[in-house]
Amino acid sequence: MVIAMKGLMQLKSPVEVASYIVFTDGLRYYAKNGSTGMIEYSDTDASNVIQYAVNMLNGNGGKIFIKRGIYPISKTINISEPLIIEGEGPDWYQNHGTYLKSSGITVFNFDFGTSMKYMPIVRNLQIACPGGTGIRLGPYVSDPIVENVACHEGIGVLIDGAVNGWILNSWLETGNYGVRVVNGGAGFLIFGNHFYNNAYASISVEIYGVAQLKIISNIFENDKRYHIYFDGTGVIIALNQFRNPSMESAGGYDAIALSVRGMVHITNNSFTASQGRYAINVIGDNANARVMITDNIFTNTWTRPIALASGLRGIYIIRRNIGYLTENSGAATIPAGSTRVTVSHGLVATPTKFQITPLGQPPGKLWVENITSTSFDIVTDTAPTADLKVSWYAEV
Hints:
By secondary structure, the protein is mainly beta.
């Protein structure tokens, strides 16, 4: 039974910063007006109480503060205007913060219709959504912020056409996707999050058709399948830690799988795996591809750190990666009385560019021959009378 409690003044109710305060006594859920201090609405269903507060603010903006406690969510909370929803922190132990529990539904659905509206905020909450979605950001949602939110099971954040937002400092331990980007979602910064997926078929971040996305300074850990699966253009992936993809199937999946339509820059990340296939796997072909893979670190066991599908068009620059050498240099010595020395170049494939410089007066011409995927020979037409050192540089 729903009980409306308009006009009832709660004792000890100073004027609050929030427009509405939602709280529970363990049996019922209450919505208190932050300006008047009055409890305006109460119900045994937390969803109805939060939706009431949302409806009172739709069109006016403001903040709904949900106090610590457990809030079973039986139906989607629909939000059609920008507002702030804030709790008292993620609550893994269910007694220290704000914990919203649902099953098979979307918990918060931000849908602004056909008019662009700006900066809804969700922060300091824990959301459980097995078989559902924690936060959906629909078309015409611009500049949303999701901060310090712990989502587990289901989909954490669904960017369904929203643009120019931030997902910050959150824990996304989900059963399907930590963040999923579809329908033209673009312009997001995904920064400082911890993705930890240990459920079947999990992918931390899946992206389709997105532009101008920055994935920076996150931790990706123990995905059953991919850490990132990407089909689109305009992505920077930098300063992340990738640990152990493909936990479902040894050698079956990659840390990052890319089907590239335009610009992608993957730089200054670290990759480690116990049974992953490729750290970076470029699987799609597009003449507009502009791909830079630079300054990354690959350690532990990979079938191959970087894999490029055969016949790729576009421009690919792969340089200065530790554990995947595409350029190398050193010095070799042609012994006195000999005309050649074999150099092990240590590159990932057969080099195509060389530079050789004698460190002393050569007796004749110098060149390279017998070039293979592991070595090449530096050759002179006249044997030196003393050991001749030669500096070399080779590039794939």
